[in-house]
Write a structure and sequence with these properties.
By secondary structure, this protein is mainly beta. It is built from 1 helix and 42 strands.
């Protein structure tokens, strides 16, 4: 009966008709924008794209995103499709950890000179790229955040250090934004108490102190939520925490649920130094930085997660399945929700036209950011093919290119990625799933949702041309649903909180047929806001707890066919 069902699916499937990629109701992290090539390491002939420290604001019903040293900024009407704007007047080397603030939908303010001494720029027409500078210089600012309250009082917050705290000062908006009053220290890292603030990959560094940086203030229901990044942008555990106050200048209290934005597991890691904005329909979204750290430590990408505030005023960011497809911000009733499409390509066999330097195609399905396939050339003869091993319903694909000896620096017009993705049921007859032969888009992390899902077993990428001298791809990810059963619900967990209460070991029994697990935790059974994706394992050492906070934990299993119910939440003191 099962075989008959599969045959009917194959027969009735629209897969064998050419699929189009016009509709985009979903998105997938990292964000697919035309990242700027950095000049940080040009003296060493190291070329790489990067985007970090996003400041996203709504202005007159549309959105603007300012990103570290990008030589301009991006504009969007829906938080999904972004177009780059080259401004007429701007910081010569781009803004660094920029701040942006929309004042009453009349003036947009930006600041972030890499020197740390900066004017505040302002514009009432950011789409035209016309900016003016206030005739005053603010000094010794790193990672600034400009905030103008509803009463018109202005404040500047800043900090990027493993020594100094987040600081703030009131500014005189009507007198060239000059400081008004004394500088106040607001809060510092508290690593002996907050495990997630410890430095290193998986918070493993016991010598160096973490960095506190990137303040961003959000006002919600009359309260002030000061977000900040820690412990280091190059690590999988880079995250955003939050303190809460009744006044912009404090005093600030550490929120019980922390960090609020945290994505240490899965393919793309990191969710720190971000900003929070209200998108379509008034829903909150948190933008942040993700780590690549292949060519250099500061090689990064951007991410976007749904966020919000619960009935108790707790701020949260949803990073569960954070690098799988989600509904786009403009989709009513579903915005930000996990789409339910699973990863079909994980650890599946891959063959390639050719390999250079021993960098083989198995890297394309290993869900490891730092591995990549290097093709023999950048031309139309190059291809890779994934065998999904069983027919599956393919709904979307993501091609993550890698900058291997790219030899490009700054903003370069006219870059584009041209390729075709094909599907087959037998490995012999192929039909087009994604057609980028004539594309004029620069898409370094191209995510494409198929307008018509395709039932196929084999997925093939055929190269046409990419802008880099070498064709290198970090990951070719295929999303959809298999025709089997989702895994069963995991049983009871074993929780071992260590003598160092920042650390805990979570263990669970393996679930037959599971591809991986999400460890969920939070400060109450109905507040399991944090998650950590684990492939192939049944144990996790987590070093991110707060010493004087109790927690609840649960685990859910997933595979190509779906997601189980989570286990019953279990309490640990």
């Amino acid at each position: 009966m099962k075989q008959l069902f599969l045959l009917l699916l194959l027969f009735l499937s629209p897969a064998l008709a050419p699929a189009q990629d016009m509709r985009q109701d979903t998105y997938c992290n990292p964000l697919n924008i035309d990242y700027t090539y950095m000049i940080y390491n040009s003296d060493k002939d190291i070329s790489y794209r990067s985007g970090a420290d996003p400041a996203v604001v709504r202005f007159r019903g549309e959105y603007y995103m300012f990103v570290t040293r990008s030589n301009g900024y991006w504009h969007s009407k829906d938080l999904l499709n972004w177009d780059f704007i080259t401004p007429k007047n701007w910081y010569p080397q781009g803004s660094n950890a920029p701040a942006a603030h929309n004042y009453k939908d009349s003036v947009l303010y930006v600041t972030g000179d890499p020197s740390g001494s900066m004017s505040i720029l302002y514009s009432d027409d950011p789409q035209r790229g016309e900016w003016k500078a206030t005739p005053a210089i603010l000094h010794n600012l790193q990672d600034p955040d400009l905030f103008i309250d509803d009463d018109g009082r202005a404040y500047m917050f800043w900090g990027s250090s493993n020594v100094y705290p987040i600081r703030g000062v009131e500014l005189d908006k009507n007198h060239r934004f000059l400081p008004k009053g004394e500088v106040k220290e607001l809060f510092s890292l508290d690593m002996p108490r907050h495990g997630w603030e410890r430095f290193g990959e998986n918070h493993s560094d016991t010598v160096l102190g973490g960095y506190i940086e990137g303040p961003w203030l959000t006002k919600h229901n009359g309260r002030y939520y000061m977000q900040y990044g820690a412990p280091g942008t190059e690590f999988n555990v880079y995250a955003d925490g939050v303190y809460v106050a009744d006044h912009p200048m404090g005093p600030y209290t550490y929120q019980k649920h922390n960090p609020v934005s945290y994505k240490p597991g899965g393919y793309m890691n990191g969710a720190g130094h971000g900003s929070t904005v209200q998108g379509p329909g008034g829903a909150y979204w948190h933008f942040a930085s993700m780590a690549l750290s292949i060519n250099v430590n500061w090689e990064r990408r951007l991410c976007m997660f749904p966020a919000g505030f619960d009935k108790d005023g707790i701020m949260y960011v949803d990073t569960r399945f954070g690098d799988y497809p989600r509904y786009a911000p403009a989709v009513p009733g579903k915005r930000g929700r996990f789409r339910g499409w699973m990863l079909l390509s994980y650890r599946k066999p891959v063959t390639a036209s050719a390999v250079k330097g021993g960098l083989g195609p198995a890297a394309l399905t290993d869900e490891l950011t730092k591995t990549f396939w290097l093709a023999e050339a950048n031309d139309e003869r190059q291809w890779v093919m994934i065998d999904l091993e069983n027919p599956a319903r393919v709904c979307a694909v993501q091609v993550n290119y890698h900058d291997y000896r790219s030899d490009m620096y700054g903003r370069i017009p006219g870059l584009r990625h041209r390729y075709v993705i094909e599907g087959s049921t037998d490995g012999e007859t192929w039909n087009t799933l994604v057609d980028r032969k004539s594309s004029y888009k620069d898409t370094p992390n191209d995510y494409v949702e198929l307008e018509t899902p395709a039932t196929v077993r084999y997925v093939r990428y055929r190269n046409i041309d990419v802008p880099t001298p070498n064709l290198a791809i970090s990951e070719l990810r295929v999303f959809g649903l298999g025709f089997g059963k989702a895994p069963r619900r995991p049983g009871k967990l074993t929780l071992d909180r260590h003598a160092d209460r920042r650390d805990i070991t979570i263990r669970w029994e393996p679930v037959k047929g599971a591809q991986g697990y999400n460890v969920l935790w939070g400060i109450a059974p109905d507040k399991l806001y944090s998650s950590w994706m684990v492939y192939d394992g049944t144990e996790l050492l987590m070093k991110s707890l707060t010493t004087d906070q109790d927690y609840y934990f649960a685990v859910e299993a997933f595979n190509e066919n779906g997601v189980s119910l989570p286990s019953e939440p279990q309490y640990v003191e």
